[in-house]
Design a protein that fits this description.
This protein has about 210 residues and is mostly helical. The protein is built from 7 helices and no strands. About 80% of the residues lie in helices and about 0% in strands. The relative contact order is 0.12. Keywords: Membrane, Transmembrane, Transmembrane helix.
């Protein structure tokens, strides 16, 4: 006879609750988290594109400087071919070409700075929304999954249901416990089956799980 799913395996993982109210709350919360993350990423991408537009002047400056340097170098080369005075006339053209290359370098530096700024701002605006998800929603979600899987496994046997009953005794509000039995702790200690089942069911319902065996 094949063994049932073991605790700790993928098949034992409980992702969503069985009971509709808890299930709906989980689904809606998960969808809101997905929308929150998507919106944060889209905003970061929009901000990146917006800041990148500041690099346009640098691109124009680089293009103009590179083009001017090439033209001056070409003109200096032609002037240098003149007899007698060619070498003397190429000096100013060479200096002007160097100045144009420096201007192009400034344009490249400006683009690099804008690119770094765009990345830094995009990452900065993602830190808060993703931090809420990673350190707020995700630990709570994983904790519920872990507790639900554990409770589901415990509910399969009498000893497990006794442990669930004990957990209910330590975590449930007193008014709910006294509805089961005015002296619910004593009833649990003497092993009253009805009380143990009621307490276990109370704990399962708290987690949104079905209470049937």
């Amino acid at each position: 006879m094949p063994a049932g799913p073991r605790r700790g395996t993928l098949s034992a993982v409980k992702v969503y609750a069985d009971r509709l109210p808890v299930l709906l709350r989980q689904v809606v919360t998960d969808l809101l988290v997905v929308a929150w993350v998507y919106g944060a990423i889209r905003f970061a991408m929009w901000l990146y594109d917006l800041v990148e537009k500041l690099a346009v002047p640098g691109q124009k400056l680089e293009g103009a400087g590179s083009g001017l340097a090439d033209n001056l170098a070409e003109a200096g080369g032609k002037v240098g071919q003149l007899p007698l005075v060619g070498d003397e006339l190429t000096g100013p053209f060479a200096k002007a070409a160097d100045a144009a290359r420096a201007m192009a370098e400034v344009g490249r530096d400006e683009q690099e700075l804008v690119g770094q700024l765009a990345w830094a701002l995009s990452i900065a605006v993602l830190v808060f929304p993703l931090g809420l998800v990673l350190f707020g929603w995700l630990p709570l979600r994983l904790r519920w999954m872990r507790r639900a899987a554990s409770a589901k496994a415990l509910a399969a046997g009498p000893a497990g249901r006794d442990l669930l009953a004990l957990r209910a005794l330590t975590s449930q509000p007193l008014r709910r416990l006294t509805r089961i039995d005015p002296d619910v702790a004593q009833a649990w200690r003497r092993g009253d089956d009805a009380t143990v089942d009621a307490l276990a069911a109370l704990e399962l319902r708290r987690l949104g799980l079905r209470t049937g065996r």
